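Q: Convert this sequence to structure tokens.
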Amino acid sequence: MSRSASETPRRAVPRPLSLYSFLLVAFLSNRERLPETALPPVALLNSLLHLLLKPAVISVPLLLLARRWRAAALLMPLAAEFLRHYGGQLWRMARPPQPIRSPRSLTALTYNVHKEDMHLEPILNVIRNADADVVALQELGSRAAECLEQELAYEYPYRSLQPYPAFPSAGQGLLSRFPLSDVLYWRHEGVVNALGHQRATLDVRGVQIALYNVHPVHPGMVGKLFDARPRQWEIDQIMARLAAEKRSVLLLGDFNMTDQAEAYRQITARYYDIFRRVGAGMGYTFPAWRYPQARELTNGLPLGWLPPLFRIDYAFASEGIQALQARVLPDSGGSDHLPLWVEVAI
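A:
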């Protein structure tokens, strides 16, 4: 009896662990019935879900080694949910696939340049080192647009640089080695702090595709606590435009959403996520605070050491476009976003 009594505390599941598991399992079981556009806490939890599930993935092997069977069993559904979403990406990190080569390849870079208008040389270096055929820029300031026009005209003979001086975060730009036509820039004026969007026809060796460079508003930018409705409305408008396309689509941009958002599921019902299909690792792109000029959101706190924790920059494509490679570049060039580089076959 004394042995049983001494083992009970060691084998019991700690209350914080039980509460963590119960609350997350309850949320996962019911979130399809909890629209994030109507419930800001649900939108926030969706944005944090990849981080909230990580402790379970780390804890389960440790609990099994410690022979804490009940505690491990309690966390296994959460660990399984994490691996269901991210297991393929993590497996490719451990066993990188051989790169696929194609004579019809196109490389593309999506890069939020953080409306930077002073420290432009690091941004130029990032773009040059990426050596992408097409570059989609978000938050393009006026001075940055002038600099890119002057410095990259030879590398990128086809350009559409459209800063928005009244609200620099809404500036957008396209740089291309292939011809661009039918270029359109727009903002959804009814949205608070509306950002910019672009659409162009890209001619890649005689094959035309629809190229989109989009930047839906962040739920925290609309004057209310994490209100996902304006972002969702913008995604709905973008998807309506995409539905009218007769060509294959390459959809790039800073989407201000994680891959657990309802809007992500809406997009991937029609287009696939290139990084999810061929990328390795978690693909986090934000926040990148290594450079002092990127720390606008830190309120002076010393957070330059913090690694990126969210994947909000994406490249999506029609099934007629084949994903070859995808990776997040390690240098932000002074932006608070890391660039995403992809290679596809047209």
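The chain has nine helices and twelve strands.
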